[in-house]
Specification:
two-stranded parallel ribbon; 40% helix; 8-stranded mixed beta sheet; tRNA threonylcarbamoyladenosine dehydratase; HesA/MoeB/ThiF family protein; 2 domains; Ubiquitin-activating_enz
């Protein structure tokens, strides 16, 4: 380990270690790229890819993100952007859960979809995408539908779970599972020009309150559709909430619901009983 540390110190430019030298350190000392990244951060250095995070995130905060595990339930419209943003900010482990494969109607809005990925499992595409942009991030692809029976396994060991589901019943089941396992949940939903975001801390009934009037059937997304820009916006709010939860910074959306209206460019918030 001393040799690894000396190598990294020798090749750092100021506090920054380039991707070239991070990768070479992994090869030379027979460790993973993720292990090399952790060593860099533990030394108080910074992988050069994160230099534009400085000012918003400290080196210590970057290490917290690297050590974190986040479960993303759904890898479609919202989930694809969420996985991408989590990987780029430096979350160490992402559990990407989705049972589906890409179809042509996904191409208008789902970041991970392309002509080449039609027919490909969405969870596998998430892993492939992250490997191409940040190999220091470990993606655990799970090609399974979220259900009460497997909920514990899917969110076990995660610091935060992110709701990128597309139906109300599954959202409520995820909410209950997160409470049962003491995992904070960042909720997001989209429909047409509109979206909402909220954070449920353990033992809160946030989603039960949000959907208290729901009886059965699909949500309004089926009626209003989803253009490309709505999931992008809502996913960004969700990932910001994830980072705040992990870093213990800022004011969370716990006890509040943010409603985003992109048609009229309004953002409103509503208090939710906790």
């Amino acid at each position: 380990m001393d040799e690894l540390s000396n190598y990294l110190k020798e090749h750092a430019q100021g506090r920054l270690v380039s991707w070239q030298h991070q990768g070479e350190a992994a090869r030379r000392y027979r460790i993973t790229v993720a292990q090399a990244e952790r060593t860099i951060l533990e030394m108080g250095l910074l992988p050069a890819r994160y230099q534009r995070n400085v000012g918003s995130l400290t080196a210590e905060g970057q290490l917290v993100l690297h050590r974190s595990r986040v479960a993303v339930i759904g890898c479609g419209g919202l989930g694809g952007y969420i996985v991408e943003l989590l990987a780029r900010v430096g979350i160490g482990t992402i559990v990407a859960v989705d049972p589906d494969v890409f179809e042509e109607h996904n191409l208008n809005r789902q970041l991970l979809s392309s002509i080449e990925t039609l027919g490909m499992p969405k969870a596998a595409a998430a892993a492939q995408r992250v490997a191409a942009i940040n190999p220091a991030v470990t993606v655990v692809p799970v090609q399974e539908a979220f259900a009460t029976a497997n909920a514990g396994d899917l969110i076990a060991g995660s610091s935060v779970a992110v709701d990128a589901l597309d139906n109300v019943q599954d959202r409520l089941d995820l909410s209950d599972a997160c409470n049962s396992h003491g995992v904070p949940l960042v909720h997001g939903a989209i429909a047409g020009w509109y979206g909402q975001v909220a954070t449920q801390l353990p033992e809160q009934a946030t989603l039960r309150h949000i959907y208290r009037s729901w009886g059965s059937g699909s949500g309004v997304e089926r009626e209003l559709g989803n253009p490309s820009f709505t999931p992008t916006a809502v996913a960004s709010f969700q990932v910001a909430e994830v980072c705040k939860l992990l870093l213990g910074s800022g004011r969370l959306l716990a006890g509040r619901k943010l409603v985003i209206d992109l048609l009229h460019m309004d953002v409103d918030q509503f208090t939710i009983p906790v």
